[in-house]
Write a structure and sequence with these properties.
2 strands; carboxypeptidase activity; TFR-like_dimer_dom_sf; two-stranded antiparallel ribbon; mainly alpha; about 220 residues; TFR_dimer domain-containing protein; Peptidase_M28B; Transcription Elongation Factor S-II, Chain A; flat; single chain
């Protein structure tokens, strides 16, 4: 919470019922994770959401004008490659999710080693979308390629693909001010961000490896 206790006591949550409910919710989530043999991270839903996010980002970039400045053919090729990588990720993710679902519902039993392999894969898949050097140099403290705060409109709000969309808005802003060198710089950051995203998706796909699982 970013407000003083007096505001909470008198206006926001007088009896602290809302905050108590939020605390209970997170405790229940923690209990559910602790009680689950396999981490309850639904890869099928994650892949579907990622596909939707990419479609929305593509439309957003087109509205800004990024497609024209990159070149329509090159722009479509970039997103073709992104969707190809995403399709491969979805295919592998669905296979892994079927195994996880079978284990969590009791339809399939696994050894301790197999459970560890599944849990490790789930954790590493999420880590594949974390850029060690940050989403771009000016925001190196933010490292998740998909989710970050919104630098342009609201630092407290969430933003999808901050390493791509934020620089795209910066490019638009610099272009409107006639600062071509800065605009070119931000366009370069947009291209790097798109490359990072494709690499992350491909890396996540490679993590879903079933070698040794049934040995």
């Amino acid at each position: 919470m970013y407000e003083i206790p007096w505001l909470l006591d008198n206006f926001v949550d007088q009896n602290y019922t809302a905050l108590t409910a939020i605390g209970q919710l997170w405790l229940e989530i923690g209990r559910d994770i602790a009680d689950s043999l396999i981490i309850p991270f639904n890869l099928h839903d994650y892949a579907l959401a990622l596909a939707d996010f990419i479609s929305r980002m593509e439309q957003q970039l087109e509205n800004i004008g990024i497609a024209k400045v990159i070149g329509i053919k090159a722009y479509h090729l970039i997103f073709h490659n992104l969707r190809k990588a995403l399709y491969q990720f979805q295919t592998q993710a669905n296979l892994l999710q079927e195994i996880i679902q079978s284990v969590n519902t009791g339809q399939e039993s696994v050894s301790i080693k197999q459970a560890e392999m599944l849990n490790n894969r789930l954790q590493y898949i999420e880590r594949a979308f974390v850029a060690e050097q940050g989403i771009y140099p000016e925001r190196s403290e933010f490292r998740h390629l998909i989710f970050s705060s919104n630098r342009i409109y609201n630092d407290y709000g969430n933003s999808l693909f901050g390493g791509i969309v934020d620089p795209a808005f910066q490019w638009q802003h610099m272009l409107s001010r006639g600062n071509k060198s800065k605009a070119d710089y931000w366009l370069k950051i947009v291209k790097i961000g798109l490359t990072k995203l494709q690499y992350a998706i491909e890396s996540a796909t490679l993590i879903i490896d079933f070698d040794g699982f049934y040995d």
